[in-house]
């Protein structure tokens, strides 16, 4: 009998949060689960013991949440994401359990330093950037606002690579975050599902009945579940992050092994292990592309099998699936789940095609995160059909239904029909995953107001015309627990001192801080917190890189995935122009500035990796030039991750959000910086538009072309060369870079990179350069009036409360999932 349905079964007493009992629990874990005596225990032993003790207390709340959901028959949300950039979990769990004082007292009794051991916890390498971090924030907020939820993803062994910098170049190394196990997770051996690839489809004719289609796969492997509890603020609810690991059905082929083919005997295990080894395998070659498609299907199929199994176990059949289940696709990566759901409903659960499609659309929802057509994912039809023959049949069947219905609509041109088709017929025939996600979902949302409107006008124009009620906006948010309370305890204490604790439960209560923005005493305290955070970052840089930076300088920070549309290149070129100006005009009163960069480039993205090299080359020259007199420094911090962000963001004076307008869906780094009291220099792109509306344009530094102006310039035959020749600073900076001033060992290294700006400049670097340089001098002027700067910084923190992931999740739950 299921334990949840039997209230007479005795349950263990929840673990105490008392400091003395907590200390005893930690000691017990150290001895009986870690297997160490206190005399010989090392810091990593204590870390594991503390995590296990805290995990017990999280588990008490987890079981309570699970029972409550089951007994109430509540609707569950299932969030499918290829990334969950969760970072370190210990501090998050302690804070959300409200056990900070208790754990500090307990560890003091054991002569253990929490800061020392917490710093040893590895960052889970389960994501790349904003997409994965948003998923992590959403998981925490779903628990906080009491939405029953599972997150589904892949348990990557190495995840995204560890980035090292060798002679200025990015070097990718394995990120062995699981090398010593993961004490937070629970292995669920009973939650194991078969995942299939390739083979053929047999048709079975039965008199008087619809034919049945049976997939006979050529490859089979197993997906095994590992669960990590995700605790919400004040432990109101604990939800589940379920990650899938791949295992071979036959881990060793004994006949081959005994015949001496020891490597061949392990080929099935190797194939399975490869599937969950690395996040985003390089897709510049066919093998990498196939592996990525296999990964997307692997976790989507396992997740759907798990969802349907759980639903039938509780409710008996699938007739009420849309009423009790909401499945959310975080970007196009899990879009194949739409087709897999159809296969499972029709082939396994014997539901008719039309009914299955209706159930699927009512159950699924989809968040789009990009306006870049190439990021919507398409797959060659031959590859898709070879791996998923049954799914390809269903795609054609769904496509026929959709196109026949679309033809009946007024104004359905041939071009419109071609654009909404699930198959791109232009050139190599490809399966369009964005169209599958759109048409297989009842709700499609953008992640900022600007992005949502541009979706309707660009990538989903024709789909929006046939389904005008589906696209809606849900502006992103960040969890204020990790991105204010935990990463910036000094600022959190200051805010609590002046406005009380209400903002801890409702971030919009930060508005009360506005009244103190012009209070000179509060400004001094606010500025002192920022100086402490800058000193901490300076120490980290000194320890990691041996580079000294001055905490009294402006800390001008751009941290994000390295991509041309995010325009790190614009920032570097402006640094070169500023370098020239400082040397040419030493008599001027230059504001000391440290430009800090961090981020990873995709292994096969040549220009992005070249931009990293350029940043390091420019840093080498500028940082060693005595003529600069320390007024400008450039620092690239390797291996950017959540823990590094938690140090950099509270220390930022200036937040660089300078993407080409119309290309950044939302951004969440912009929100994290602003709530920690950094001023934004940025374009009117993504959520910057809404941030301006909430913060006030006077408290940001906005520059550059709008999305409409960018589109018009491209349509009118934009000529970057003319602009470059008309801008003395820009032309000199580009000439210096392309001629080898910063690359004496290889003078032509950047010729093509800079030549691209002259020739086509798709990302409008030349078009926005003069405005950007002027905006940076505006920043200098504000910085020189420290009172004015502090007023603006305080208003940033005070007015950012709306950009909480709690608010975003309540909107999702109310408007899309029907879960509140």
TrEMBL record:
Its cofactor is pyridoxal 5'-phosphate. One of its GO terms (cellular component) is cytoplasm. Its EC number is 2.4.1.1. GO terms for biological process: glycogen catabolic process. One of its GO terms (molecular function) is glycogen phosphorylase activity. InterPro entries: Glycg_phsphrylas (IPR011833), Glyco_trans_35 (IPR000811). It comes from the Bacteria. This is Alpha-1,4 glucan phosphorylase.
